[in-house]
Specification:
Keywords: GTP-binding, Nucleotide-binding
Bound molecules: guanosine-5'-diphosphate, magnesium ion
Structural class: alpha/beta
Largest sheet: 6 strands, mixed
Low-confidence stretches: none
Organism: Aplysia californica (California sea hare)
Strand content: 15-25%
Protein name: Ras-related protein Rab-35
Length: about 180
């Protein structure tokens, strides 16, 4: 349906967060609506493109970048962030360390990207009721303290994937319009 209009915006979005939090699964769910329970560490940096139409009928072409096997913090380079308009910062609600590492990720995002880059926090694997190690309240508190929008998501069950991406688009469109 949105192939008939040329995109008004082109945004580069990058996904970051610890290994195995579900970044690749999030991207696959968003772009091809598929999910695989098998883990395969991807090699190199990869991206996928998807065109979305916002509630205000603006057509946005998203280029979404996935880190692959370079999640170890120190191996991330500024080139991955270059030209980015938005960041999906992801942790796994069943792995507390991935939540505790968020402030390190934020520091890196802030040092490598523009001041006004929009960041959305995603707590993935919300389908896993058992083995949950991070509560919604504390995730919301962290999001609030750092001025981030928070989405509790499941790439497996397709929960809040589109909402998180739409929130990034909307925030970016507002920013672009303010700059005009
Ligand atoms: P990445 O290293 O951050 O790219 O993580 P992957 O996307 O490769 O996912 C790591 C593992 O977590 C894989 O076995 C996925 O199937 C699984 N996984 C990803 N997203 C979800 C989710 O929403 N729920 C559950 N239960 N498992 C997930
Ligand atoms: Mg991956």
């Amino acid at each position: 349906p949105n192939n008939d209009k040329p995109p008004t915006y082109l945004f580069k979005i990058i996904i970051v967060g610890d290994e195995t939090v579900g970044k690749t699964s999030f991207l696959r769910r968003f772009t091809d609506d598929t999910f695989s329970p098998q883990y395969s560490a991807t090699i190199g940096v990869d991206f996928a493109v998807k065109v979305v139409e916002t509630a205000k009928n603006e057509v946005v072409k998203l280029q979404v970048w996935d880190t692959a096997g370079q999640e170890r913090f120190r191996s991330m380079t500024s080139s991955y962030y270059r030209g980015g308009h938005g960041v999906v910062l992801m942790f796994d609600v069943t792995k507390r360390p991935s939540f505790l590492h968020l402030s390190n990720w934020l520091t890196q995002i802030q040092s490598f990207s523009n001041d006004d880059t929009t960041i959305v926090l995603v707590g993935n694997k919300a389908d896993e009721d058992e083995g949950r190690e991070v509560g919604t309240d504390e995730a919301l508190k962290f999001a609030h303290e750092n001025d981030l929008q928070y989405f509790e998501a499941s790439a497996k069950d397709d929960v809040n994937i589109v909402n998180a991406m739409e929130a990034l688009c909307t925030a970016n469109i507002e920013r672009v319009q303010r700059l005009r």
